[in-house]
Amino acid sequence: PKGGKMDWKKAPCRFCGVGCGVLVGVEEGKAVAVKGDPKSPVNKGLCCVKGYHSVMALYGKDRLTKPLVKKNGKYVETSMDEALDLIASKMKTTIKDYGKDSVSIYGSGQWTIPDGYVASKLFKGCIGTNNVEANARLCMASAVTGFLTSFGADEPMGCYDDIDHADVFILWGNNMAEMHPVLFSRLLDQRLKRGVKIIDFATRTTRTSMAADKSILFLPQTDLAVANAICYEIIKNDWVNKDFVEQHCNFNKGLTNMGYGLEDKYKFKDKPEKIDFEAYKKFLEDYTPEKVEKISGVSAKDIKYMASFYGDPNKKVMSLWCMGMNQHSRGTWINNLVYNIHLLTGKISEPGNSPFSLTGQPSACGTVREVGTLTHKLPHGVVMKKEHREFAAKIWDVPAENIPSKPTYHTVEMFRALDRGDIRFMWIQVTNPMVTMPKLKRYRDAAKKEGRFIVVSDIYPTPTTDIADVILPSAMWIEREGMFGNSERRTQYFEQMVNPPGEAMSDTWQIVEVAKRMGFEKQFYYKKDTHVEEIYNEYRRHHDNKKHNMAPLAVLKKNPGMQWPYVDGKPTKWRFNSEYDPACSNGKKFHFYGKPDGKAVIWQRPYEPAAEEPDKDFPFWLNTGRVVEHWHTGSMTRRIPVLHKAMPKGYVELNPGDAKRMQIKTGDLVKLTTRRGEIIMPASVNERGVPAPMQVFVPFFDEKMLINDITLDSFCPISKEPDYKKCAVQVEKV
Ligand code: SF4
Asked: Which residues bind substrate (predicted)?
């Protein structure tokens, strides 16, 4: 700041799913300062290190400011008009030559609501292909399928206010201190005020474990067995809330394929089947704490200790999780299993009793889940249901037959289709798949194949812009108007505060311009000055019901966000509880109205080994993840000098005992080899986190050390979310 007049304007932070409210200081047309918004109920004035420095991400020296088109292997600057004409004509010729399913869009949980909405409308409604996916498939698809299978309705029933009511917090494999730092500080605050307990249940010792009251380590993948053992203990000790279970739960077994349309391909023949309580109890006999101790490495005593909190009728328990449970070859199952614990004890849908699935990205909920930018989704419903297609088509002003009734490709399959040549055109916005795709080398080679046309919209050069035929410069965050939706169903609006550089344009308007050029002027009637309001108003019509109503734009503009369902001028804090949720209609205290009979499902889900486990050739587990300083692939945060300096490069974290045995010290070069390839990086011993013996951890933010070249692209067969947390690796000192 130069000391001149500063205007402070509200926005949600764009750097994680917590969705903190921030105030951005604008001076002489430049965003120069950030502070936490004291009026925000999310963060109450606090920010983390990424939030405080977020505006600096706008001003990196190498911002993309002009469209670039690849000609004879070189990028040539062009006008925006020319680039948009080229994209529209390339899409039209690709569709003519190869069919509608040869074009695709791959977006993001960092797309604003209008970005995702126009992408879905153009591809699903106008062009007529379900080739719409988003990187949120890689981070929360298992949370979605967990909610749908257990409750028939997506997104948490509770909210962040649960933190102020819970007595015990059990963190299932999530390093909240680094990944959701401001929320974690709310837990610590409650410990100071009320003496609550925090239990960190994880595969690696992190800053979260260090701050927790107790850290319990489990072997990778065995959370499935431990969750079942907790259920076993709850039943054995007669801690079941029988009245709640009788009135509000069914018991099921079976795989459930979610009707993604891929059942034949993946041979999902197993249909869900109802069982009774006795059959479920019998199934759990394989999961006594003593038996599970042998699989999981968690002592029977610690399993009983965790179960005792869930079983204590005088303790309110909040379970929190994120990627550790979602990026899991049985991600849907482990989500179901934690819901089982809360359902058996009736500790759900009321203040402080809350199974809470956190999201990573600022609008994974708002855009990907609520707008529905996944192959099978529509804003309200799924493409497989005729009435949902008809409903969306009416609002989109397209014939219902335009929207295909079958999903096409989930994310990994979409890149495989690009490899095979079934997809010929891909538009990538607000994401960096050439850093984040598992088994990356295969998909990088695929994108470079002859006859593929890739458009990348971004704000900085990345390994993904390296594969582009056309690069479009995007306007970032507060350089345009938009909304995000955070982990607690809160939609937050932000206005345009500063001008984008050069010809940079919002991702929304890029799509609108291409749609118009493709002949869809009628559907894309929006005017430049008012398009965000027009799009949001149109989008709200998809959710116009008590179960999902979104607040009007005027309400979002006035408030630090608003939670949906927004009914009769009020947000709904706890869903499925008739005291708070006006959509409950069964006359009882709880109503799980996402299921036809109003009952939630307790699922019989077994333990199953990981897709690839260590063996004599690859004896270590490889786990990947994030660090507090960087946002995902670091394309923005590495341009913020203070964050880059704090965490300048990637590393491999080793267990101190393993490091000693292998004579490896911090900074020594280490070669990691998996069945997919090898990578060399510096070692880190006893610095940030400490993996358990025979495990290593690598953050994925450093584009110069592409750890995903060697990760595994196997995925949960229900959610199709890859397991980035587990594969087998050889570790050698170089
Ligand atoms: Fe932003 Fe997340 Fe940090 Fe809050 S916790 S300031 S939303 S990065």
From this structure: 700
Instruction: Identify the residue whose C-alpha is closest to ligand 1 atom 1.
Output: 51
Q: Which helix (H) or strand (E) holds 658?
A: helix 656-661
> Quick check: is 140 catalytic?
yes
Q: Side by side, which strands form the sheet with 7-12?
A: 7-12, 21-27, 30-36
Give the whole-angstrom CA distance, residue 548 versus residue 542. Answer: 9
Determine if residue 520 is labeled as part of a ligand binding site: no
- Residue range 294-353, pLDDT digits in tens: 999 999 999 999 999 999 999 999 999 999 999 999 999 999 999 999 999 999 999 999
Model confidence at 3, in pLDDT bands (50, 70, 90)? Answer: confident
Residue located via tokens 């486990």: 613
Residue where the block lists tokens 């029933």: 157
Cα 715-684-695 angle, rounded to 5 deg: 40
Which residue's alpha carbon is at the smallest distance from atom 8 of ligand 1? 15
CA distance linking residue 651 with residue 701, whole number of Å: 10
On the question of pLDDT at 267 being above 90, the answer is no
Which atom of ligand 1 lies nearest, measured to the CA of 54? 1
Query: Which pLDDT value is given to residue 260?
Result: 41
Measured distance CA(399)–CA(394) in Å, rounded: 8
Distance CA 48, CA 640 (A): 14
Q: State the chain's maximal CA–CA distance in angstroms.
A: 72
Sole residue written with tokens 């041979």: 267
Cα 487 to ligand 1 centre (Å): 12
Closest C-alpha to ligand 1, atom 3: 48
Cα distances from 463 to residues 65, 90, 210, 428, 458, in angstroms, run 17, 23, 35, 12, 11
CA 109 to CA 372: how far, in whole Å?
A: 11
With a cut of 70, say whether residue 142 has pLDDT above it: yes
Give catalytic status of residue 360 as yes or no.
yes
Distance CA 258, CA 281 (A): 25
Could you tell me the strand order of the sheet in which 214-217 lies?
Answer: 214-217, 197-202, 168-172, 317-321, 354-357
CB 153 within 8 A of CB 593: yes
496/478 Cα distance (integer angstroms): 5
What backbone phi and psi angles, to 5 degrees, belong to 57?
Answer: -65, -15
pLDDT of residue 273: 87
323: annotated active-site residue = yes
Residue 382 CB neighbours (<10 A): 20
Domains and CATH numbers, the chain: 7-59 (3.30.200.210), 68-138+362-525 (3.40.50.740), 141-358+598-604 (3.40.228.10), 620-733 (2.40.40.20)
User: Residue 691, preceding bond cis, omega within 30 degrees?
Assistant: no
* The pair of three-digit structure tokens given for residue 272, joined into one six-digit string: 């869900």
Q: pLDDT digit string (tens) for 674-728?
A: 999 999 999 999 999 999 999 999 999 999 999 999 999 999 988 999 999 999 9
The residues pairing with 353 across neighbouring beta strands, listed in sequence order, are: 350
Pocket, ligand 1, Cβ cutoff 6 A:
13, 15-16, 18-20, 43, 47-48, 50-51, 181-182
